[in-house]
Design brief:
alpha/beta, Rossmann fold, 3 domains, Shikimate dehydrogenase substrate binding N-terminal domain-containing protein, DHquinase_I, TIM Barrel, Aldolase_TIM, eight-stranded parallel beta sheet, 20 strands
Length: 440
């Protein structure tokens, strides 16, 4: 069982055997978008997609400059060692094709006849397309009916209604792509994904943008039909797509299952953090069923309230949320409370309560002490080398408070230099630091 927010989500995914012999814990496919100006370049990318570990390829026909439908589609299908998904996206749905719909839909019908495994048809023209094929769809070809929203993510009710409309339009597979204005938007898409498992129609539910990254990784946990992974960083067919290398090597995508615990680093900005690289490798080495993600969060209280199940088990906390996170925890370690900042949040599995800690001061002060002891060949005996030293902290935020606390605890004389000027900010800063340093 898995859940987001206060909604219980039931997931099921039978394990599969991977080529390496390891157990694949989900059936979610990885699709590589193939985008190029020429068929020749697309053929090269098809080979790269196969060697990268993809399950299928999305051939973006709208990217081709000169298209000879029968010849080019036949060449691409024959050249692909993987199942093919053909997409011919018009500009009005975020693609590059800027012409009449009739030849575009005829090209998709031709792809079906020539042996495509999947084709993508926009909801707006799905009824027209299905009427035109008059039931002559090859048995092996599945029709994905898609809807893209580049403005926002609708309400849960509107999303459910949208799924129903797509199913009614004759979809073999439902695809919805929305835009994340806040990371909490993704929870509604997880609900849609899990709910779809009750029906017989698979769902692809992606949330575009950096805030929607978790939808592209955790769809493996919640039962999504596929996710997209690009061959190159930044060369994407929709905003926020990770590379297939990151999906497989950084996030250990094949090992994510219904019982996988979710961890991550909460921050804004956050994409630069190396934490997922460290923790996901550690999880893999230890055989721990967890995944660690970048979490671009605007409001930490809203995030923690939305993703409140025990599946979301713990978080690192970085700028600018360390101080705000203190108020979000059910219990705060006395040291973290004295510092006034939290950089580590753990959710207790028995009752989902949040516990806040601060490890910044331990890690940073220990590293500084080790550096100062270097001339003593690593001898750590006796008083701290910070004892009696003048310790200047530049910045009075969460990390600065932790460093000041740790230095004072080690006997240093602490001076704080902050960039914010003004009587009210000075008074607030002075009062906080007085409480913090006295408590040492």
């Amino acid at each position: 069982m898995a859940s987001t927010g206060n909604i219980l989500l039931a997931t099921s995914s039978a394990p599969h055997e991977m080529e390496s012999g390891a157990v694949r814990k989900n059936s979610t496919l990885i699709c590589v978008p193939v985008m190029a100006d020429s068929v020749e370049e697309m053929v090269i990318q098809l080979d790269k997609a196969k060697s990268s570990g993809a399950d299928l390829v999305e051939i973006r026909v709208d990217g081709l400059k000169n298209l000879s439908p029968h010849e080019d589609l036949k060449t691409l299908i024959k050249a692909s060692a993987l199942p093919t998904l053909f997409t011919y996206r018009p500009k009005w749905e975020g693609g590059q094709y800027d012409g009449d719909d009739k030849p575009r839909l005829e090209t998709l019908r031709l792809a079906m006849e020539l042996g495509a495994d999947y084709i993508d048809v926009e909801l707006k023209v799905a009824s027209e397309f299905n009427a035109s094929i008059q039931g002559r769809k090859p048995e092996k070809c599945k029709v994905i009916v898609s809807s893209h929203n580049y403005e926002n993510t609708p309400s849960a009710e509107d999303l459910s209604n949208l799924v129903a409309r797509i199913q009614a339009a004759g979809a073999d597979i439902v695809k919805i792509a929305t835009t994340a204005l806040d990371i909490t938007d993704v929870a509604r898409m997880f609900h849609i994904t899990v709910h779809s498992q009750v029906s017989s129609v698979p769902v692809i539910a992606m949330v575009m943008g950096e805030r929607g990254l978790i939808s592209r990784v955790l769809c493996a946990k919640f039962g999504g039909f596929l996710t997209f992974g690009t061959l190159e960083s930044g060369v994407v067919s929709a905003p926020g797509q990770p590379t297939i290398k990151d999906l497989l090597d950084l996030y250990n995508f094949r090992s994510i299952g219904p019982d996988t615990k979710v961890f991550g680093i909460i921050g804004k900005p956050v994409g630069h953090s190396k934490s997922p690289l460290l923790y996901n490798q550690a999880f893999k080495s230890a055989g721990f069923d967890g995944v660690f993600l970048h979490l671009l969060v605007d409001d930490v209280a809203s995030f923690l309230q939305t993703y409140s199940s025990t599946d979301f088990a713990g978080f690192s906390c970085t700028i600018p949320h360390k101080e705000a996170a203190v108020k979000c925890c059910d219990e705060v370690d006395p040291v973290a409370k004295s510092i006034g900042a939290v950089n580590c949040i753990i959710r207790r599995q028995s009752d989902a309560k949040l516990f806040g800690y601060n490890t910044d001061y331990v890690g940073a002060i220990s590293a500084i002490e080790d550096g100062l002891r270097g001339s003593q060949n690593g001898n750590s005996a006796g008083a701290s080398p910070l004892n009696g030293k003048l310790f200047v902290v530049i910045g009075a935020g969460g990390a600065g408070k932790a460093l000041g606390y740790g230095a004072k605890e080690k006997g240093a004389r602490v001076v704080i230099a902050n960039r914010t000027y003004g009587e009210s900010s000075q008074r607030a800063c002075r009062d906080h630091w007085r409480r913090c340093l006295i408590s040492c």
